[in-house]
Amino acid sequence: MYMNNQEELYGAVEAGGTKFMCALGRASGDILEEVRIETRDPASTLSQVIQFFRTAEAQRGQIRAFGVGAFGPLELRRDSPQFGFITTTPKAGWANTDLLGTLKRAFARPFGFDTDVNGAALAEWRWGAGRQLDSLVYVTVGTGIGAGVIHHGRPVHGLMHPEIGHVRVQRHPADTAFAGICPFHGDCLEGLACGPALVARTGHSLSEAGSEDPVWDIEADYLGQLCAQLVLMHSPQRILLGGGVMHQERLFAGIRARMLHWLQGYVPHPELQESGFIAAPGLGAAAGIKGALALAADSAGT
Amino acid sequence: MYMNNQEELYGAVEAGGTKFMCALGRASGDILEEVRIETRDPASTLSQVIQFFRTAEAQRGQIRAFGVGAFGPLELRRDSPQFGFITTTPKAGWANTDLLGTLKRAFARPFGFDTDVNGAALAEWRWGAGRQLDSLVYVTVGTGIGAGVIHHGRPVHGLMHPEIGHVRVQRHPADTAFAGICPFHGDCLEGLACGPALVARTGHSLSEAGSEDPVWDIEADYLGQLCAQLVLMHSPQRILLGGGVMHQERLFAGIRARMLHWLQGYVPHPELQESGFIAAPGLGAAAGIKGALALAADSAGT
Q1: In B, which residues are within 8 Å of A224 by CB distance?
Q2: What is the mean pLDDT of chain B?
Q3: Closest-CA residue in chain B for A75?
Q4: Is there a contact between A128 and A282 (Cβ–Cβ < 8 Å)?
């Protein structure tokens, strides 16, 4: 592995459906400068991204390497002609966008590239709530539901990358009337439990749902089922839950209780009972941009 | 990594609930000698295992290292006082058995230790139907349902090890009356789709169910749901399905069709449509014992 020089500059891009966060930082995870760019069409958005880094280089000197953590689905296979593309996203204008290639044509440097959630999982593993673990799942519950997975200290790719938001769950008995909002699956986990699903079910915004609202019991059950499935499928040492929906902090205890309910004692490890097994991200909202910075630092030797 | 000498001898133990297979072999995967020992109580079974390897050493010379692939659940964390134990198995007499310690006291050599299915996955990755892949899931559908997972070329452990058989599935519309047989969960995947569940549902043995029996449509749906969940959770490059139930070869096409049904086009990769994505193990019934041999060879440098 390339040994990062702590004086060198790295460029980080957290590419989201609402905003692109761009930052200049160090291999240590320190952020020197950051900008928020609204996500519009690919050409004008990426043009602003490139302009930010050109200006930063003019002021501070050359960037050693870049890292990009992006919304997906993405093509991550290096031997594919579409490597670095956002592929089948329903986001208008962004399907089949050559995100990585556009940035590489502007900057001939090493580039790390992964999903936003794999990047965030990597940052949490390196600097946040997953330090000294071998395996970790980072879940974000917001506009959608996505997860990054670390095994053996590295993000999981495989054929594509995990798309954990679309697993199926058992219907909560008090939630049989709502059809779910996933355009592919209707009532998959994301269709039932992402932020917009909560809004569609209750007719009011998340901030209007008080902590006693019964919708949180339904939400805790679905996310508890997800955590039980993650334990059985991935056997992680910790599950981190972030994203806008998790601002309702009473969810954590409810999710833990429902995870244990669904496992029915099959996995006897006492760690599952501990409050730290399902936890908030240690880096908070910075996990995404720091993830892109980690991807940049890791790419420097390649 | 230790470079294995192709002349050296390795000891392999595939520890199952019905039988213990013991073999002497090479780091290349070649088996020189093999014996089947019926699984009785731990003391007498392990005494026979030890006797087999003592006799083999007297005849052929010293064994370099051993590998054990075992039924579980197992304690795989090296820093645990129970490292190497079979923990909470319902198999009579075997809960809290110090499997690895008993063998280590007889032979002071390096020992590799993992689940039988992780071992089989490793053997398939190295010598079988998973060569040149980065990620792979090996599922056995027999007395129970278990799976080994390879990411980055290594078996997944984490907190424990995956226990994929116990994930939940959606009920097939023609299968609402059967309660399932899992003592923990009732109608989890294993409770609905393992061999004994098929027998309990139909009242006749697997070999009596002709290939036109509608029970195979139900089985293909449940295993198709498993494969869809594996794609979303693990994004493997290939899924191998082995075990006694998979002797009904018409299952493969049905499982593939049901996996695609449950994914609803969300993962667009054409590889999922190919017949090789869900395949039979390349090593057939030898995957388990060769897995133990792979664990032995990998432990030699430790």
Answers
A1: none
A2: 95
A3: B269
A4: yes
| Alpha carbon distance A234, A228 (integer Å) | 10
DSSP string covering B254-295: HHHHHHHHHHTTSS--GGGGSTTTEE--TTGGGHHHHHHHHH
Q: What is the pLDDT of residues A255-288, one digit of tens each?
A: 999 999 999 998 888 999 999 999 999 999 999 9
Residue B42, preceding bond cis, omega within 30 degrees?
A: no
B156: closest chain A residue by CA? A151
Residue from the list A161, A163, A268 with its beta carbon closest to the beta carbon of B88? A268
Going across the sheet that includes B31-38, the strands are B31-38, B19-25, B9-15, B63-70, B111-115
- Looking at CA atoms only, how far is residue B171 from chain A in angstroms? 10
Q: What percent of chain A has pLDDT over 90?
A: 88
Percent of chain B with pLDDT strictly greater than 70: 98
Put simply, the answer to whether B232 touches A166 (Cβ < 8 Å) is yes
CA distance B36 to chain A (A): 30
Q: Which two tokens stand for residue B145?
A: 């349902």
Tell me, what amino acid is at A174?
Answer: A
Residue from B190, B233, B267, B278 whose CB has the most chain A CBs within 10 Å, to mutate: B233
- In sequence order, the 6+-apart residues with CB closer than 8 A to the CB of B3 are none
Residues of chain A with pLDDT under 70: 1-3, 302
Which string of DSSP letters, residue by residue, matches A176-212? SS----BTTTBSBHHHHHSHHHHHHHHSS-GGGS-TT
Q: Chain B residue closest to A154 (CA)?
A: B152
User: Scanning every residue of chain A, which has its alpha carbon at the shortest distance from the alpha carbon of B134?
Assistant: A158
Q: In angstroms, rounded to a whole number, what is the distance separating the alpha carbons of residues B111 and B1? A: 15
Residue B167 near residue A232 (C-beta atoms within 8 A): yes
Nearest to B236 among A135, A159, A237 (CB): A159
